[in-house]
Specification:
alpha/beta, single chain, two-stranded antiparallel ribbon, seven-stranded mixed β-sheet, 1018 residues
Amino acid sequence: MTSVDRTAYPRFTAAVSERQLAESFTPTEDEKDWAGAKTRDEAGRAVLLTVLKCYQRLGYFTRAEEVPAAVTGHVGALLGVTIDLAGASRAERTWWRYRDYVRVRMGVVYDAKRVRRMAAGALEAAVVTKDHPADLINVALEELLRAGCELPGYSTLDSMVARIRARYNTTLFAGVQERMASGDRLRLERLLLVDPVSRRSEFETLKAPAGSAMKLGKFKDRIELLRRLDAVGETGTWLGGVSAQRISHFAGQARALDVDELSRTGEPKRLTLIACLLHETRIRLRDETVEMFCKRMALVHKKGRERLEELKLAHRAESEYLLDVFGEVLSLAHEVSGNEETSEGGFDAAAAGQKLLETLQAAGGLKRLTAAHEAVSAHHGRNYLPLLESFCRAHRAALFELLEALVLEATSADASVVNAVNFIRACRKRTGEYVPETLTVAGEDGTLRKLALDLDSFATEAWKKVIRDKKHPGKLARRHLEVCVFSFLAAELRSGDIAVVGADSYAGLHRQMMTWQQCRDLAEDFCSQTGIPATGSGLVEHFKAQLADTAQAADAGYPANTDLVLEGDRPLLKRRKGADRRPSAIALEAAVHERLSERGLLDIITVSAHRLGWHKHFGPASGSDPKLRDALGRYCLTVFTYGTLLGPAQVARHMEGAVSAHELYTAGNKHATAEKITRASAEVINAFAHLDVASVWGDGRTVAADGTQVDTWENNLLAESHIRYGGYGGIAYRHVSDTYIALFSHFIPCGVWEAVYIIEGLLQNDSELQPDTIHADTQGQSLPVFGLAALLGFDLLPRIRDWKDLILYRPDTTTRYTHIDSLFGDTAIDWGLIETHWPDLMRTVISIREGRLSSVTLLRRLGNHSRKNRLYRAFRELGRVVRTITLLRYLSDPELREQITAITNRVESFHKFSDWLAFGNEMIGHNDPEQQEKIIKFNELLANIVIYSTACDITAAANELAAEGHTIDTEDLATISPYITRSIRRFGDYVLNLAPPDQDPQTKLDLQPGALFPPTRI
């Protein structure tokens, strides 16, 4: 049986808080009157009201002995009676009559067959995409609650899920096996064979992460692995009809198993799991090899620019030498020509020529001067392109192997770069320095055909000068041509103008998006949720009016805006000094800190697991319950192990035999995924959001995003050096609420523009805190991001460092402003472009909302300027509108600027707090990007657990001060950060105490008795 703790099935918690009693178990006056009319005495009324409130809370009738004493005591105290629920249930006729009364009042009819039929229908539909039993139970619950049904017993739902899931999986596994030929099955089984020398199987290579993109050997290895895995078979055919979610789930199961465990699985299931992992690996390898290719070409160009600067520095002496000679020649020309009034031809040309030659000879001779001129003129400009060929020569074979392994397709009508790729592939075996612009090649059927290259259709003038030689008309410099085509191929792969068939991140966007026919019916509902008009013309009028109104308000308010100065060439925004904390706030903070009890970090984790149950989200990849001796303790140690970066070996050593390093490693790698850690963190966030003190810090509608550099090992695809942070590794990119709690974390490459991930963190946030305003720094914005955020209903308000260099766009070319006109450029918004591409914009955002397209994938493409991508141009134009509005608000509203600064500072403080908790190591000692992502999320989960614990302690301390007669101002309380380290003990003896806490945490502020929660009156 699936543990009920791992599902959303309603049940009583181990301890019912005062807040829950007040909110869920306090009868209304109407309910009291109703119960009084149905019963004969006060005792009966109290029992009926208890049954009613329990049903309202659970959605089903529970046994009398399962109702907590706190509930009966609370209801009885309100009514002035003692409730004996167990005794009342023994009077069966009265007990069942009370249930009927409740059903009538709640408008439900007990129909077990109908409920089972509805649940089975929901499960049959959901099992196509979901496999975890807990997820399927939750689907059935959601459907039954939506229909207002009385919930069946948990065992009923669990058995239904087990039966339907087993039947569907058996059919699915058999179908996949039948679609495989005998040779396909044999090749899959061979993947499990262990090499006696290396003691590794090919199956293990499916899980291995890519190495560094900067190492040529790793690049070649990934290409070769892709070719070998493609030769195993066509996984897409075998898995036809299996949903993408199911494929991902089965691949995760296979990834968590070793060869021995997989070999003991039944053949149909074993083949399906291997096929799913193989399928995902082939997709991932395409993405990885393309990413490595793009990084490699970027490195080639970087080396070319650096070499050009070196040559300029090396040839500085020749440049000065040539300038001296030129100066002497000019002096000679003045000497022989006389004064300016001398008529043309009024001097001896022969004598002048003789003196010129003598001057040149004295300067070193024509040969020396010619060599110096050639050396300087070859690199005197900024064109480093001729130098790239030398840096690309060592990669040439690997780059062509990549082209053979990939299938490229143009995503627009312009296929010039794809044609150029085919051209250089045809020239691969040529050894001459030049190749003709038109080739005769043999087709697959043996027929000859002409293959021409249209260099003018894609190459820049600088490249054309390098590739074409006047001495060889009609021919192209072969090596320079190859580097040129590879460079443009990398650029168009980045921008999405070229897609890779069978990839994910580099697949065609339009293949991933929903069709307009699918989106049309969803558009109106989507637009109503995000607050934008549901037509193209309406969207244009909405933003046109918003831009005009914001600009007019900023212009009218300029005389009173003493911070903004528009005199001179560049505008100036004066900085305001932040407000100092009040002495009363400082005194309150000191008093609260004095009352905080010291707690061990491991104790904080275990207590939170008992109270919040976040550990229930961890478990085996199959979705079954964990078969661990003590799951709660093991998962608490796992969070401690990876959240602090101590690692399994160190924690096992300090636990003195209580747990082994292997057990911790297994829990961290086989029972925890990034998604499961995110769900566990959401559990903590939800509990934190219900604390009174959280609402003092903020309303949860605002979030800030920022990144901090984290060192890692170097042999992986994600790690890079970072110019800003100065280290080598990745970026922990976090979204932190205005209530101090972290909502979501990513681990991203250093070289990526952080704004690419800013929307994804909001979309992937599963907690009850759903912010609609997001702040960031300069890295958190771009024109496409502004446009996408606006369409998804988010208000992106970053602080932009070099705002003075940005262009503000006018609503139309005729609009002028009295005071702030100098802020605007001459360009107006192209509203027609936005209206024309409104269907494309809607397709994109609806596809993102429905999970068909990742916002990261989209923004990575739109973050690279594309001369072909119409989607980029549409988002860029809308982004110009939104960014102009945002900048005008930023310049006009000092309170907004203060809010942005305060919230973004909160993220930086969270970074420092989480770093303090990660005391076990200064770097992430892994090369697997998935493991690196999990460690960042473990660290976030650990930080959130500590923040929740500290917030409860702050609540208790504030209540204690208030009880002693001190006046507590909530404005002062709001200045106390929960990022407190003085009361947390990180070091010392680590003892796993699994005893449940003996008292509930204080979640309710009682600063002024009766102010926040007035006592309930009967």
